[in-house]
Amino acid sequence: MSRLHVVSGKGGTGKTTVAAALALALATEGRRTLLVEVEGRQGIAQLFETEAFPYEERKIAVAPGGGEVHALAIDAERALLDYLQMFYKLGSAGRALKKLGAIDFATTIAPGLRDVLLTGKACEAVRRKDKSGAFVYDAVVMDAPPTGRVTRFLNVNDEVAGLAKIGPIHNQAQAVMRVLKSPETAVHLVTLLEEMPVQETADGIAELRAANIPVGGVVINMTRPALLDNGDLDIAARGARTGIAKALSQAGLGGARRGGHADRLIDPLLEQAREHAERVELERAEHAELTALGLPTYELGLLPEGVDLAGLYGLARDLRRQGPI
Amino acid sequence: MTSDDTTLDASAPWLEVDAVIDDPRTRIVVCCGSGGVGKTTTAAALGVRAAERGRKVVVLTIDPARRLAQSMGISELDNVPRRVKGVDEAAGGELHAMMLDMKRTFDEIVEGHADAERARAILENPFYQSLSAGFAGTQEYMAMEKLGQLRANDEWDLIVVDTPPSRSALDFLDAPKRLGSFLDGKFIRILMAPAKVGGRAGMKFLNVGMSMMTGTLSKLMGGQLLRDVQTFVAAMDTMFGGFRTRADATYRLLQAPGTAFLVVAAPERDALREAAYFVERLAAEQMPLAGLVLNRVHGSGAAQLSAERALAAAEALTETLVADGDPAADPEAGEAGDPSDGISPNSPSADPSSPVAENLEPGGIVDLDGGKNGSRTAGGLSPAATAEHAASPSASAAQLAAGLLRLHAERMQVLARERRTRDRFTALHPEVPVAEVAALPGDVHDLTGLRAIGDRLALRPGDAGT
Ligand SMILES: Nc1ncnc2c1ncn2[C@@H]1O[C@H](COP(=O)(O)OP(=O)(O)OP(=O)(O)O)[C@@H](O)[C@H]1O
Ligand SMILES: Nc1ncnc2c1ncn2[C@@H]1O[C@H](COP(=O)(O)OP(=O)(O)OP(=O)(O)O)[C@@H](O)[C@H]1O
Ligand SMILES: [Mg+2]
Ligand SMILES: [Mg+2]
């Protein structure tokens, strides 16, 4: 069982939502999970309808069966200052560095340093134990950067250990890589049944594998039921028109004769059906492509009114129902 | 500008896209917006449309979908615009397109501003290599840089710029400044200080701070990285100031009257919230906003039929089918609801409803279950279709009609939701002109698709229909 779940996917596919649902799903039966975000957007706070949290771990939700979800928005600058303080007791020097723009440099410009700090903090939470020697968190779920950047983000070893060949940053990178490349970690990719996200998912999996980072599952998000397909349209094309007009009329939607209310509904309704059928075809093709990747897949339906807290709990239930992730 | 038939609030003016791209004074169009909303598609579609309306256009795309790039003939990254084939040039226009290669653009700046030896030293520096390949913000900076170059060439009369797939549209404006201020900033000067200010009187304080700092940094990063950074900085020395100056020049270009920003957004809460931030930011920066492109909007040709009513009708149809397998048994069943509710003004009661019942063929309907068992669709997704072989047209027609109605109800719910989010934006920014682009059922990956998007872009909202 993995203990660090990294959730990535193309922008806007539902990474934050799925990460939160997963943290909830993994927290049932009295377990405790930590949900971390690394991009400084307070997406988790928004989702859980709480105010932005400071740089500290706090409980944000209770899962069915007494579990707990804690959350942390990791801030690279704070992580660096803490780190300097911890290893070098550099309290005031930290401030001086900050003034000079060095902290800015280290956390936003210097390639990879930021990522080491962020992944380092997450890995620390994964390994943290309490006095009795038990893990503090049963699982850590990370709302990670999008697919296009996630391999680079996780593969800090190549980035940083290559640049900083010795020193604490080098060591930190090495330690992080040991966790990230172990079976303790699983990277899950969220996708929609659309061409670009599916393509990015396939590319992302190949990149992750090439970097020896373990891939978990594919979460197909915002699926919609197929109400009609091409077969139905064939019927319509084969002259079911009068029949449909009659049925519509039967259902109280006006007259079925030519030009009647029901009759006038048919063309636009059939047009919508054609569009729907085209989309269904497209989605089937994308679905087949995802299945061919040979990874476990999970599906989450589109919530018509968007994701609120109740919806999020529902998504967590749906995830659990689909087996261990 | 607006007319009675628009679905928009009278307070939301129409963004006349053709007027923007036809105006010879428009020299740059920037398509921005949050991730995945359709920036690249909109930029490419505008390019095609403007070229076919007679302008000499270049489109700078960033990370286009693979098939789209292939169909435009720009899948090779060579960092120069290529003429796009298949564009109608009858009106005297041309379309050129390119895909941004950020590393190459960065390399070219270095090569163009340093002598050969120095350039090589920079290009081979490990720190430079990481910086040019991946620092978040390099892409934005290089997009600006490339825009500056294209504009300086003066070879095109319209430049359409796509923006990088960043989380927030604001990154496009902020990232270059961040990189620029680092490259020109205090920290860099301090890193270079040993060479420059060493020993000079009055610099003692700085030197103390400096050595403490380099000491700390080298402890932290390892001496090698620090040396790489210092070598890089020393080699780039001549170019400093250059970066800031260039970023500033491009920034001014974006403020010029010949520039038009189009903010692209999906009719979704998050995307429109981002769009609102961006609109406010453009105003603060005095950058000219042309308007909002609301992309992937849904319409319906049967909007007179409400979701509630469609669902109730679908329910009624299914019920009769399931209950007694004979929808014709009770000719009045369908008339239970108020037929005038949610339907067009003509009174439906004027329609003769009895012939309907007479014409139905109840005989076929008893076969319904047989049809269901012979399920054709693997996923069992399509009950109406499965009924087809065994059942009579009327049974399958009733199920098909129910399916059509459910589909319609779903569509109407989407419409209502999109309208609510859009109205929230309009209430906040009633001055921002809006164009709506209907969602196409499939992806957009060729010139035909781009033309279709272009046609929709140019339509007045409300005329968009489906
Ligand atoms: N299953 C779902 N049903 C309905 N709406 C959803 C679903 N999943 C996500 N959404 C909505 O889609 C939008 C994008 O989701 P989310 O913010 O989780 O994506 P993201 O991948 O984290 O985006 P970003 O790349 O911007 O970080 C949000 O408005 C969210 O509420
Ligand atoms: N009006 C539309 N109807 C149907 N599909 C569309 C429409 N507009 C865009 N698309 C599709 O949506 C997907 C995303 O579009 P596009 O790549 O243009 O977005 P983007 O904003 O450039 O994304 P990114 O932020 O990743 O760069 C593409 O597959 C495109 O074909
Ligand atoms: Mg997110
Ligand atoms: Mg794009």
Automatic annotation (TrEMBL), chain A:
SUPFAM superfamilies, sorted: P-loop containing nucleoside triphosphate hydrolases (SSF52540)
InterPro entries attached to this UniProt entry: ArsA/GET3_ATPase-like, ATPase_ArsA/GET3, P-loop_NTPase
Protein name: ATPase
Pfam family, any one: ArsA_ATPase
ArsA/GET3 Anion-transporting ATPase-like domain location: 5-180
Automatic annotation (TrEMBL), chain B:
InterPro entries assigned: ArsA/GET3_ATPase-like, ATPase_ArsA/GET3, P-loop_NTPase
SUPFAM superfamilies in alphabetical order: P-loop containing nucleoside triphosphate hydrolases (SSF52540)
Location of the ArsA/GET3 Anion-transporting ATPase-like domain: 26-297
Low complexity bias: start-end ranges: 336-355, 381-393
Gene3D superfamilies: P-loop containing nucleotide triphosphate hydrolases
Stored Pfam families: ArsA_ATPase (PF02374)
Residue ranges, annotated region (Disordered): 324-393
CDD domains, alphabetized: ArsA
Protein name as it appears in the record: Anion-transporting ATPase
Biological classification of the source: Bacteria, Bacillati, Actinomycetota, Actinomycetes, Kitasatosporales
